[in-house]
Amino acid sequence: MDIEIPFRQYRDDVFRLALSYTRSYQEAEDVCQTAYIRLLEAQNVTPGKERAWLMQVTANLCRNLLRSAWWRSTAPMEEAPLFPEPVRHPEVYEAVMALPPKYRVVIFLHYYEELTTGEIAGLLRISRTAVTTRLSRARKLLCQALKEDEL
After folding, report:
1. Looking at residues 61-90, what average pLDDT do you find?
2. Minimal CB count within 10 Å: which of 49, 61, 63, 107?
3. pLDDT single digits (tens) 17-72
4. How far is Cα 47 from Cα 65, in angstroms, rounded to an integer?
5. What's the start-to-end Cα distance of the chain, in Å?
6. Is residue 84 packed enough to be buried (19+ CB in 10 Å), middle (13-18) or exposed (0-12)?
7. Among 54, 51, 44, which Cα is nearest to 1's?
8. Res 86 pLDDT > 50
9. Is the pTM above the cut of 0.70?
């Protein structure tokens, strides 16, 4: 399989997803590298479905990493901004980054990657109802966090 085309097309999407889970550039790079190695080794990726496959593999790798004992016993080296673009509303950005991973990821996929709830459900292998519930809870947590910042 020629990996160059999917790499060029989807590298930013895959990296941002990994970064939204891990909040670490180094860990996100490692996850991306592993995802593309798996794409190279994969025999059953349907042509035209590489993005969905890569995003799903990336999400699975990140979840496995976050569940690992190694991850729980390490501390982040530094807090770096996840997205290089200037943030218009830094308080919203900080509130999103403070969310637990399961809420942060659905917010990221819905608002930054502009995926539908059905696409997110397929990607994360959860029900569509779980996605809408997580989005709703994440929005409530964001509202609470932003109200506390105003005080």
Report:
1. 63
2. 49
3. 998 888 888 889 999 999 998 988 887 888 888 888 899 999 999 888 888 766 55
4. 28
5. 55
6. exposed
7. 44
8. no
9. no
Cβ contacts of 71 within 8 Å, gap of 6 or more? 65
Tokens of 4: 């160059």
How many whole angstroms separate alpha carbon 19 and alpha carbon 62?
9
Tokens of 27: 């860990």
**Cα 82 from chain centroid (whole Å):** 11
Q: Which of 66, 77, 70, 147 is nearest to 102 (CA)?
A: 66
Per the rule left: phi > 0, alpha: psi between -120 and 50, beta: everything else, 23 is left
Nearest to 74 by CA among 9, 22, 33, 13: 22
For residue 40, give both structure tokens: 């190279």
Nearest to 56 by CA among 25, 18, 107: 18
Contact in structure between 65 and 31 (CB atoms under 8 Å)? yes
Distance (Å, rounded) from C-alpha 143 to C-alpha 141?
A: 5
Which amino acid is present at 57? V
